[in-house]
Amino acid sequence: MAATERNGWVEEYPGAITVCDRTGIILELNKVAAKSFHAIGGRKLIGSNLMDCHPEPARSKLKRMMRNRQTNVYIVKKGRTRKIILQTPWYKKNRYSGFVEISLPITGKIPSIVRNP
Length: 117
Fold this sequence. Notes:
Layout: H1 3-6, H2 8-12, E1 16-21, E2 26-29, H3 31-36, H4 58-68, E3 72-78, E4 81-92, E5 95-106
Antiparallel strand pairs: 1-2, 1-5, 3-4, 4-5
C-alpha cells in the first residue's frame, strides 16, 4: 500500500491538521487546514515558518511549547462556532520531530465520562 493510501484518512479528516518540523516549518496541511488558512495562502504555506502566522503573545507561547515539548489543549469560540484545539509534539523513531495541531469543530455539549479502573 502506498504512503498516500495509508495516510489518506488525514486528507479527509473532518478537522484541520497542520504539521510542522522542530523549527516550525510547515510540512503538511490537510484539506480542512488548507481551506481554513486560505486567506493567508492555504497550501502555499507549506515550507514557511508557522511562527510568522502567529502574533505575540501566541508566538512566544508556541516557541516555549516547542522548546519544552509541551502539549496544549483548549477550546476556541468565534461567533457561534466552537473548536477544540490540540497542539502536541510528534516523534519519528522516538526522536522529537515537530508539532501537530488538530482543530476539530464541536457540536453540542461535550460529555465528561468518568471510568472506574
